[in-house]
Amino acid sequence: MTVPILEMKDIGKSFPGVVALDHANLDVRPGEVHLLLGENGAGKSTLIKILSGAYTRDSGSILLEGREADLSTPQAAQEQGIAVIYQEFNLVPWLSAAENIFLGREFSTSWFKPHVNRRKAEMEAWKILKRLSADINPRAAIADLGVAQQQMVEVAKALSMNARIIVMDEPTAALTGKECDTLFSTILDLKSRGVAIIYISHRLEEFHRVGDRATVMRDGKTIKTLDLADVDVEELVRLMVGRSLKDKFPKVPATLGDEALRVENLSRGNKVKNASFSIREGEVAGLYGLVGAGRTELARALFRADAPDSGKVYLSGKEATLNRPRDSIRAGLGFLTEDRKGQGLVMPLGVDENVTLASLDQFSRPGFLSRAKQARSARQFVGRMRIKTPSLSQEVKNLSGGNQQKVVLAKWLSSDAKVFLFDEPTRGIDVGAKIEVYQLMNELTRQGKGILLISSELPEILGMSDRILVMCRGELVADLPASEADQETLLLLAAGGGKTIVQ
Ligand SMILES: Nc1ncnc2c1ncn2[C@@H]1O[C@H](COP(=O)(O)OP(=O)(O)OP(=O)(O)O)[C@@H](O)[C@H]1O
Ligand SMILES: [Mg+2]
To answer: pTM for the whole thing?
Structure first.
């Protein structure tokens, strides 16, 4: 028997109104990938924050290689060789990739000259990024990088610390295809050097691909630790949610109405090139593409979160004059952004206030915001989407990642938009809640709303769309009925293997 590299025993942690961890146990062996699984709010991130010294535990003990360890501060944990890549990145937007990787540990030119040796940092950063096959300029400012690239910088940062335990909290949530492959081969490489990896993910298809063992959490408790060789995905899901889930994509066949949205020749720089498409009432148009293909840019230009160079937008057949997001909301567009921290939520406000943010017009008489109405609407969504929160006024920054995402969704669903642009709506959402999101989408289409579903998950695109659009390098390269699409075709189209426009 190898001595576990890490043992967390009987860990307890409470926040006002919430028992986040209740006698949680975790043991991790050197050189293994240990999955930490559970529904949104189960306590995964909290357990990790205790390991990393970000939170102090109320009770329990932590052993590293059999010895009691002091992990009371982030610094202490770092010194013990624990590195964490958080769900919400911890990068400083205005600093460069290299500066972020070596933040707080800048190379000094010599001991009596404690300046940052920028060139050395950039050189080292370049080496690590190259090892990750990440095409990122170490000098590029974080703010100018996409979500996937920022993720890579986080991975590089952990690697640069020579950590012996690396925690990855939903590392692939923002990555697609090739980048995931790269990450997985990096993980294999780390394993072979005896590094232990604690891996948190909601993506079922990854479990057996990367994991050796799994610990399942529910309501702050660790339910079970299993060898992945002995258990299938269905069983893991059952352990996580406490029941079996049958239909993962409960799509109801669309009843199509008139044209809800038409976009003509939308362009923005070289990110979006002359995109034209339309969505009918009651229709879900899936927009697939690789990271960097321009899907988010298209949605942002359409919504006027960024100004397009050209392009007309028609809602219900009438051309809409859109100059800024507020015009778009008025005209009947709803936009659920991929970056919930940056664009979707106001962190210091309560759940109720966030949910009703997009639809203030509905709730306010001139100069007066009806708290009662706001609360009623918020309560309804919290119940339906099973948003785990001790109260409606809880600040959203205290919710678990997946529950924050649910609040973003609720916020747009409670608005009365006619067409919704959903950018990765189920990212970071657990299996059970995903199905609820799909059911809400069904309800929206039943009401005659149109949906543009941007997703990097092919099963989701195939399972929930009526029509599928594919983007490649800023161009719309496919527009076809979902019934004519399959996994291989879409992958090929997304990679630049031709064009398919079916009218
Ligand atoms: N700082 C905090 N203040 C108050 N409550 C908190 C805080 N951090 C976490 N919680 C609560 O503790 C519980 C566990 O949250 P945690 O973030 O650990 O969940 P999780 O398993 O990581 O979920 P997800 O899959 O959504 O990321 C949740 O109910 C959450 O709202
Ligand atoms: Mg979490």
So the answer is: 0.77
For a mutational test of ligand 1's pocket, the pick from 15, 168, 221, i.e. the residue with the most ligand atoms closer than 8 A to its C-beta, is 15
Is it true that 6-241 and 259-332+417-501 share their CATH fold?
Answer: yes
Give the tens place of pLDDT for each residue, 88-125. Answer: 677 888 888 888 888 777 665 555 544 557 888 889 89
Ligand 2 centroid to Cα of residue 493, in Å, is 33
CA of 163 to the centre of ligand 2 (A): 21
Give residue limits of the domains in the chain. 6-241, 259-332+417-501, 348-415
CATH (one of 3.40.50.300, 3.90.650.10, 3.60.20.10, 3.40.50.150) for 259-332+417-501: 3.40.50.300
Q: Is residue 49 in contact with ligand 1, taking CB distance under 6 Å?
A: no
For residue 208, pLDDT over 90 is answered with yes
| CA nearest ligand 1 atom 6, residue | 398
Query: Does ligand 1 lie within 6 Å of residue 216's CB atom?
Result: no
pLDDT tens sequence across 216-255: 999 999 999 999 999 999 899 899 988 777 788 989 888 9
Looking at the domain 6-241, which fold is it?
Answer: Rossmann fold (3.40.50)
Cβ of residue 11 lying under 6 Å from some atom of ligand 1:
no
Q: Which 3 state secondary structure label does DSSP give 346?
A: coil
Between CA 182 and CA 155 the distance in angstroms is 11
Q: How far is the CA of 406 from the centre of ligand 1 (A)?
A: 13
Q: Of 133, 134, 151, which is closest to residue 142 (Cα–Cα)? A: 151
